[in-house]
Amino acid sequence: MRTRVHIIAPYESMTTIIEECIPLFPQLAIQYEVGDLMKGAELAAQAERNGAEIMISRGGTAQLIKEAVTIPVIDVQLSGYDMIRSLTLASQFNGQTAIVGFANITSGAQSIIDLMELPLKVYTIRSSEDVARLLLELKASGYRQIVGDVITVNTAKTYGMEGLLIQSGKESILRALEDAQLVYRYLSKNHAISVILNNLVTQEHPNLLVLNEQSEVVFENLTDFEQNPLTDNHIYLTNTNLDFHQSQVQNVFIVDDYQLTVTAYETTLNNKTYKVYSLEKGQPYAFAQFGITAYTDISMEPIVAESPAMQAVLKNIRAVYENHEPIYLLGEADSGKSFLVKHIHQMYSSGGLMLQIELAQVPPGHLHKIPLSKVRNVEINHLEDGSKDEELISFIQTCLQRQIGVFILGEKGLNPNRTLDVELNTIIMPSLVDRQEDLAPLIQHFLSDYYQKYGTVAVKMKEDALQLIRNQVPYMTVNQLRHLIKQAALNEQDYVISAETLSHLLGEQPSSNTMKLSGTLKEIEKEIIQLVLHEENNNQSKAAERLGINRATLWRKLKE
């Protein structure tokens, strides 16, 4: 196959010489067009898109073409013969003559002028913008003829001066085409090696992406994909993980109905950093209809843990989790248990999948069919109405053998008569009433979230409004609090949520702490506990001390 060479001639008369040279190079498929400077660069860019392998041009046009294409560009050099012919002809002009051009023209011209003692002056320009100003000055100084390249000659003619173009002779065009042959021989050898190495890489990694420092794809080979499946968020999460770990990382994403595994590492070449992504397309993950949901690239907000109760839970969960032991997370509904599991997955799993399993929806025999190769954590719900113990035990043991984190979520203590033959570590999820220190940060976080999501006005809550919420905390879950703050943010017209707005949402609040001794003994007892809690600003430890009971008893009585 012949090498495709494209010549951009800065002036029309060069094409005659090009046509004479073409038959002398049968191994080259030579095409040519006429275009100077930016027009020539545009033609060159189009020629590259059409398959040109080597470009040839001259002077300033060649320089612009080098910036416009990615293939080799050969600059037609002015030979001594070219200069002698042009300068000899210019010296015959009856009037002052100046040689104006870039250094590649003027440096050789000065030597020939000195040697031949020609009555010519040389002026060197650094950019095409200098031409017009310089020619006007030369015209004012009495110069009538300008010798140079295309732009110089055309500008001279515009100003009413004679213009003489320094043309490239046949020997210069021949030398450029010979250089094109040499470049092709060199590139073809390297191209053969490149093809071999490329085949080896693509056989080993059939789905490969290389990204530059701006996360732009500079190489792409995707055998198993019709198009690049990675979103900007996938790339951001992978690069962040890579920057943090400073080593090879692996992330797993759910794309459409299949799992996508991305293995990435960094490499440096010529002081530039590149990120290499190897993609693997997994089997379809079609288990959602069986109560199994796969989560990945979980972008979670930071968990609020200002309270001692929440800090202790996080500390204990992490200790058990890092020892690869199963955790039974016990707490009331909507207390944030599942949110906490996702937080642990995000913080400590280094990518991979998290499965959320609703045992009540899983048909018998399906747990062992779940592919676990990319799974890092499993959340199991509704233990009390799920699969048979033998199947569940086998599944949990398989997860533990693979060092997959196991979280079982429940609202009741485990039935002592039900044995799972697996030692579960029970950790009690604190209710909102045990997280008084978390109340204000939670509210602020919710307000910030709704401000960004819905454009709400409120950004803060007044102290008396906060106190109304504190009074309701014993009867609220985290999700109920979230919903209340959402309604308050949507209805508040000021920057600060007022007690009046909350009162409308909560209903009438008790105006005093006066007790009415009516109802059963248990109801009166609970009213007394609520009054003491209110007086102690919902501090359970102080309330329990005043009532003469321990904190666990107080918590149990509140739940009754």
TrEMBL record:
Keywords: ATP-binding, Nucleotide-binding, Transcription, Transcription regulation. It comes from Paenibacillus taichungensis. InterPro entries: AAA_lid_NorR (IPR058031), Homeodomain-like_sf (IPR009057), HTH_Fis (IPR002197), P-loop_NTPase (IPR027417), Sig_transdc_resp-reg_PrpR_N (IPR010524), Sigma_54_int (IPR002078). The keyword Transcription regulation applies. Pfam families: AAA_lid_14, HTH_8, PrpR_N, Sigma54_activat. It comes from the Bacteria. The lineage of its organism: Bacteria, Bacillati, Bacillota, Bacilli, Bacillales. SUPFAM superfamilies: Homeodomain-like, P-loop containing nucleoside triphosphate hydrolases, PrpR receptor domain-like. This is Sigma 54-interacting transcriptional regulator. Residues 303-490 form the Sigma-54 factor interaction domain.
